[in-house]
Amino acid sequence: MAPHRVVVLALTGLLPFELGIPHRIFGRAKDAAGQPLYEILTCALAAGPVRTDADFAVHVEHGPELLATADTVVVPASYELGPVYEEGRLTGELAAALAHVRPGTRLVSICTGGYVLAAAGFLDGRPATTHWAHAEHFQRLFPAVRVDAGVLYTDDGDVLTSAGVAAGIDLCLHIVRCDHGAAVANDVARRTVVPPHRDGGQAQYVDRPVPQPQQASTAAARAWVLDRLHEPLRLVDLARQEAMSVRTFTRRFREESGISPGEWIVGQRVERARRLLEQTDLPMEQVARETGFGTAQSLRKHVQSALGVSPTAYRRTFRAVSGQVDAEADAEADAEASAGAGAEAANA
């Protein structure tokens, strides 16, 4: 099969760093045989030189007709969007270019590239994000969009948006992970020398008073937790690792990560569950114990909430283990049916 084609739309005033993100991340994704999983191409509104926000231009070989061949279209940020940014409307040239995009094509934006998707109507009624510094303006300009300024990226299936600059790396890694599993995404992250997943959201980057230098971080507590995810974890024990009161630790943790300690622990447990579901044949009860969720029911609840699918469906997608997955699916269905029957009896 031909690799999944990603077409990056280079607009005047683009940021070279963000233009390179899709090429770097998708271009490093390979299958077990070392074959590329994506083909990445770049187009512009017209083939030829495209001015950047730096002291050089980039030469783009393809015009907008290339968009008609894309499986995924990525729109990086530009600082010269003109009426798109100022009035929320496409120029005629940009509208004509986007008309080449086939229905069903996955659409991705990085930073202010989201303005282009919003002006084209692709984000109406959908969740989206952009750089925190532009979020309020973005929401005023596009009231039909459900703007979330606190996250690094949003995923609404066929339309995905990221916050500013490096959050584009997070989003592209997320796409690789969804397409091909955590092992491939982690390999890409290692080769790129970036974390495979960043915790928290944009809130941790919004300007706020800097903690005093003598105040310790919560890094030691987080490292301590990662070795004990399978155990019951109490907030007081985390605070003790940093010699802080629970109140001080909780405040410092949120300042540093953008989320509460409890939310962070659940996220780490879900990430460990993902790896076990993808890379092992462990039964659900054991996965639940290994990740600290305790029971298969609790595992299902948290994985479903975080990933939008059940653990069995996730394993089937990324492992397709013959026989065992089907047996687990039957067992899970039986458990859910029993739970539903119990609820109906209680209501009766």
Q: How many strands appear in the DSSP assignment?
A: 10
In spatial order, strands of the major sheet run: 2-1-5-6-10-9
Form type: globular
Please report the distance between the alpha carbons of the first and last residues: 54 Å
Poorly predicted spans: 210-214, 320-327, 336-348
Number of helical stretches of at least 4 residues: 15
Task: Give the H and E element order.
Answer: EHEEEEHHEHEHEEEHHHHHHHHHH
Please tell me the overall pLDDT.
88
Please explain how this structure is put together.
- The structure is a single chain.
- This protein has 348 residues and is an alpha/beta fold.
- 46% of the residues lie in helices and 12% in strands.
- The protein has a 6-stranded mixed sheet with strand order 2-1-5-6-10-9. Strands 3-4 form a two-stranded antiparallel ribbon.
- Strand 9 and strand 10 form a beta hairpin.
- Helix 11 crosses helix 13 and helix 11 packs across helix 14.
- The radius of gyration is 22 Å and the shape is globular.
- The protein starts with a strand and ends with a helix.
